[in-house]
Design goal:
The protein has helices at residues 28-45, 58-64, 66-88, 141-154, 204-210, 258-263, 269-303, 310-330, 335-370, 376-389, 394-403, 405-423, and strands spanning 2-3, 9-15, 19-26, 98-103, 110-117, 131-136, 157-160, 171-180, 183-196, 218-224, 238-252, 426-431. By secondary structure, it is of the alpha+beta class. Strands 1-2-3-5-4 form a 5-stranded antiparallel β-sheet.
């Protein structure tokens, strides 16, 4: 055991790269001295019937406020010793130490145990000359033509079917009533509702039941909803839809010519093709950069293994789960469904959180070793670039930078680090 200027003894129970567990012992004489100070503090504000505030006799204060005094004594001694105990071990905590056990009664020595976490000492390695395979997909005429067909499809119009027969890619306008166990279900009812049979989210049974039906025809279509269907009232249940086909419409694609391009605000068909090619090339470059970055991250995590603080990982995991939950909530998922998704995904997000935290330490170490901090000139250049893109909103940009300077700086620093890593990587280009 070791002693310090303040009268306490401490010992290390367990020590890991990012975690320390310690026990602190304060002599009863020291505790008694501190207890008198606590009682004097309580006495100054004590209120007991028959006495003015601050004039309650000490023996009555001790009788009526012993539990509070013990609580305040423990709190005071912990505050005065816990960081000194850590300092003796040259351990710099990143969060408040967590008290795990307290053993004390009046007249006895006070003992308590605590845990604390610190940042790991990281010296990133093997981050230069990373071997990268960069696949480059050429933008072919076939790709451009396929995108042109997508443009045609997006700009298609709906026309009434000449034969009135529902096909696999038709738009059927139907009226229906739903029945469960032979009884009509009021909530399952619609008038002239349009169904896109080509849409992937159209219930399969409903789609199959409508194909080859004719305008004016009424069909009974039985649907068995999936057990995990979002609407719990229908999940796993069979519903009979009494469905009447009111109208059948089909897509009519526009001609691939200058008129289509002009409708889209372009000069002619060649201009449209160029726009599509430019867009595909931009997307391909983005894909290549993303894939290169993925390989770099994978390499860094593989070559740099070390412990990270559990509390930091937990915060990151909770952030990832909240982001997923908020997204599902915005998509209309109910609380029960979200809860199940969180439970089933918890291990996955714990692993992802650990990797994210470890990567942050690795990148920070690379930044320190290579001195890649963002300069004032670089921040000013980024701000000017944003002003140039929004010349009429200069004041808004200025305010945005003031309010988000730290986030902007962090983002630019990460870009700078990855640019350094890419420039120092061994990249093999593979045409596909």
């Amino acid at each position: 055991m070791t002693a310090s200027k303040y009268e306490f003894k401490s010992k290390v129970l367990e020590k890991k790269p990012c975690l320390i567990s310690m026990e602190v012992e304060v002599a009863s004489s020291q505790a008694e001295t501190e207890l008198e100070k606590v009682y004097n503090s309580i006495k100054a504000g004590a209120k007991i019937a028959g006495f003015r505030a601050g004039k309650v006799p000490m023996d009555m204060v001790k009788k009526n406020y012993s539990d509070l005094a013990k609580e305040k004594l423990i709190e005071s001694i912990v505050q005065k010793t816990v960081f000194n105990a850590l300092e003796q071990e040259k351990f710099v905590p990143i969060t408040m130490p967590v008290i795990t056990n307290v053993d004390y009664d009046f007249g006895k020595d006070l003992k308590y145990a605590f845990k604390a976490e610190c940042h790991p000492g990281v010296a990133a390695k093997d981050y230069k000359e990373i071997k990268i395979n960069k696949e480059i997909y050429k933008i072919t005429d076939e790709k451009i033509n396929a995108e042109l067909e997508t443009v045609r499809d997006r700009n298609a119009s709906l026309v009434v079917s000449e034969d009135g027969i529902v096909k696999k890619d038709s738009f059927a306008i139907v009226s229906y009533e739903g029945f469960m166990d032979g009884k009509a279900v009021e909530k399952i009812k619609a008038k002239e509702f349009m169904i896109d049979l080509s849409a992937p989210n159209t219930l399969k049974g409903f789609k199959d039941g409508l194909v080859n039906a004719k305008k004016g025809e009424t069909k009974e279509i039985e649907i068995e909803y999936p057990a995990d269907y979002l609407n719990k009232e229908l999940a796993g249940k069979k519903v009979m839809f009494k469905t009447t086909v009111e109208e059948v419409k089909n897509k009519k694609l526009p001609e691939l010519n200058d008129d289509l391009a002009k409708d889209l605000g372009l000069e002619n068909l060649e201009d449209l093709k160029k726009r599509i090619k430019d867009s595909l090339e931009t997307e391909e470059i983005r894909r290549q950069n993303s894939e290169v970055e993925r390989q770099i991250v994978e390499h860094l995590l593989d070559k740099n293994k070390f412990d990270v603080p559990e509390s930091v990982v937990l915060n990151q995991k909770n952030y990832l789960i909240k982001r997923m939950s908020d997204y599902m909530k915005n998509q209309g998922a109910n609380e029960e469904f979200i809860k199940k998704q969180v439970e089933s995904s918890e291990a996955k997000y714990a692993e992802e959180a650990e990797k994210n935290v470890r990567l942050a330490y690795i990148l920070n170490s690379i930044n320190e070793q290579e001195k890649l901090d963002v300069t004032k000139e670089e921040l000013d250049a980024e701000k000017q670039k944003m002003i140039d893109a929004n010349p009429k909103r200069k004041e808004d940009v200025e305010n945005y930078f003031k309010e988000n300077l730290e986030n902007i700086s962090s983002s630019l620093k990460e870009e700078k680090i990855f640019k350094f890593l890419v420039n120092n990587a061994k990249i093999t280009e593979i045409s596909k």
